[in-house]
Amino acid sequence: MATMEEVLKALMEQQKVIAAQMEEQNQKIEEQQRLFGRMVDQFKEFEKAMEYARCQEETVQALKLQEKSSKFTTPVQKSMLPTPSKMGTTAFSHQSNVQKPPPRFIPASERAEKIAKGLCYYCDKPFERGHKCANRTTQLFLVEPHPKQILSQRIKKRGSRAAVQYLVEWEGVPATEATWEWAAEFEQRFPHFQL
Ligand SMILES: [Zn+2]
């Protein structure tokens, strides 16, 4: 028959075992919590890494776009220059895109007249030494080439007839660039030209 003292001692032993087990459990729980915390941290790191990767991807995409757009703008700028097929039709509308007025056309006859009167053919003011033309910098001019001299002439078949052609040397253009022009049209274009 166990004594009261023996029972209490056994109970206390059991208490100690349970307490030790509980302590062990607590340690396990704490360890689990630490592990869970580390996993959360790792997940956050992973998220950060993903965000970083996304940012990088976006940056790469932005750079690619920039590269594309710069590749794209180059031919656009080039196309602003009038191409032979577009000459005189859309060439001027391209000019208006860059907010410049369309070039003002100065026929050779008008130019010759202004020169004869001693006027600047860009702004109609007296053309004096050192004339600084304000129009020259703000307005684009298309000056019709002016004939310098007739180098030669010939007779060519024109349709069913024969017609005269002049070999025209143009002002400011080398003589080697002289062009053959039909005499009839030439005299119409440059009525004041002394043949
Ligand atoms: Zn002027």
TrEMBL record:
Q: Where is the composition biased (Polar residues)?
A: 74-99
- Please report the stretch or stretches of sequence annotated as the Chromo domain: 145-195
- Enumerate the InterPro entries for this protein: Chromo-like_dom_sf, Chromo/chromo_shadow_dom, Chromo_domain
Q: Which Pfam families match?
A: Chromo
Q: What parts of the sequence cross the membrane?
A: none
Q: Which PROSITE patterns match?
A: CHROMO_2
Looking at the record, which segments are called Disordered?
74-101
- Name the chain's protein: Chromo domain-containing protein
